[in-house]
Amino acid sequence: MNLGVGEIARLLDVDRTLLKQWSFHFKEYLSSGANPQKGTSRQFTLLDLQVLIYVCEYWEEQPDIESIKIGLNCGNHIDSSIYKNMLTSLLPIFQEPYENLDETWKNVFLIGGMCENLIDEFALAESFKLAGDILLESSLSNDEHCEILYPIMYNYRHSVELYLKAVLPAQKEKHHNLQILFKELNEILKNKNVTVIPDWFKNLVYEFHDFDPNSTTFRFSESGIFSKSTGNKGEFMIDLQHIKKLMSWFGQSLQRIRYLQIAP
Length: 264
Fold this sequence. Notes:
Blueprint: H1 5-12, H2 16-25, H3 46-58, H4 65-73, H5 81-90, H6 121-142, H7 145-167, H8 178-192, H9 199-211, H10 240-259
């Protein structure tokens, strides 16, 4: 990511002429783009910005340039909170991968491109279930049940949908109807005579469909919680450990069904 003179001057709230002076005085700490050949526009890297923030912080009417250079030589500019906050405000969420990216970058992940095929729909279903599990355990350990119950239920409901779609033939039309997906799965398994779906499996799918038929109940506050089949708008209790156990069984069952290769 490169920034022009105008962008840097605006970020540091300094005159463009002063910025050019800094580029000259501290050129040994800046990239070549900060002092290009005549006729070429100046371009500053984020590391250049880190240096210039430090310079700006210690620049005075009669600056001690050598003292600032000593600070730069000591690396005093590297842990600048001003730089970190400014960097956070500048960087996009989706960035071009850095050239020096390796396994030591624990907080960075690659998506898209060559990584696109690393996760299929079944793996995505597993991911949403895992997210639900992690949130659930966090809520129990921190006594935050109410604050994150909806995200827990959304992740579980969405994983159920993805699990079913992952083992079924590709859908002609995109939809969120769990009941239709279950019936399709049940019909295929009956025809192939490979297994019988237990009641708890069907009940889990149908309950999610009953309370969240369009995958919106746990995403939007205005949806409201009620049984679509009975119209019951009373209060309902959810046992988190109970649903976690059911989701574990569900994931294991779909894993076994997956290896039956029921989809053509």
